[in-house]
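Appendix B, example 12.
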Amino acid sequence: MRKLVLLIVAGLAVGALFGHLMMSVPGYWLIRVGDSSIQTSFWFGLVLLFAAFIVLHFVLRLLSGIIRPMGRFRSWNSRARNRRAMQRTVRGLVALTEGRWKKAEKTLVNAADDSSTPLVNYLSAALAAHYQGHHVKSQEHLNQAQLTTDGADTAVGLMQAQMMIERQQPEEALAILNRLDKQLSNHPQVLKLLKQVHLSVNDWEGLRRLIPRLAAQKLITQQEREQLEFKAYRELIVFEAQNPTNIERVRGLWADMPDYLRGNTELIVLYSEALIQANEEPIAERLLNHSLDHHWDARLVKRYGLLNVNAARQLVKAEKWLQERPNDPELLLACGRLSLRIGQWQKALEYFEASQRQRPNGEVCAELARLYASLGEHNKSQLYYRHSVEMLAKSLPSLPQPSDANDSKKPDSKQKESKTIKKSA
């Protein structure tokens, strides 16, 4: 009730104001068309103008209401089709997840034209066709996905590369991924797939160059990086060392190698072997000397004892190490071999026997047997040969052997011989 009173008072106030304005501001409208003219007061003309504006507004709205229903219907129909397409897309994705590949492909393709995300439909349909083994159909869906959506090259390429990997076609996948890598530098998924492909095709050089990028993007842990780097450099050195003329390539790998890998015993042995095969034993000797001074390892000691650079100098160095490690069996064996190279037979015997006392070993026994045979002490030589064979036999796998009982069941050689004679007669 209070609001109504306020509205009435406000209306009266506005009416009084306009009445005052009409009395205090006289004027008129004069409209002349040819010989005809229309004249009215200013305020009445203003009211007519306002009324004409309201009539025009309602006429336009009426016309719009007549024209719009078709547009509204088309818009409603489009929304309804899109809604149904989204429902079918969801059903297709569910079927894809459940492994019903055929139904998933059919549902997703049928819904693609009306879907607001046709890229998802065709990519998922391509995956469903791939799982069915329909590779040509899968490629058609990928091509359609690329046509329906601008900027879909990366998604389509990644999907295609993943399919090639699963089809055991790593070379084709590598070509696609290299193209994507040039277009999208350091794309995480591209780098991950590149790592997978390099490992599958044993492309160690490609993996070696990829590892720093993977680490920079934090796509591998430090532990995984070290494992991959070790494997890549090991395989590359082994491959290049097969041909002694590739020694410069091996040198380059060693120079490029991270510092922590240069202390790895296996890589040191491989590098020294490559140097020896390329007739660069002096460099191998310096490498082994330096490595043994900083990191003692039996494998390096053994390789050092087999070198033939300057045996006298090598023996002096080995005997200095022996002062620090007097009971090292591998070092004693190396000293014995170096003593043989300079013709110190008795010293070699002493070193070999000391090594044998510290750790009985078939290899040391063989060295002793050979040396005693050369010195004419055949009884001792036969003794150590027997020890060597016995130690070798202990390392053989446990396998069944003919027993005395089985031997008794077999005819002896004389019986076999008599039967053979009778048959021949």
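Residues 173 and 309 are 49 Å apart (CA to CA). Residues 221-309 form one domain.
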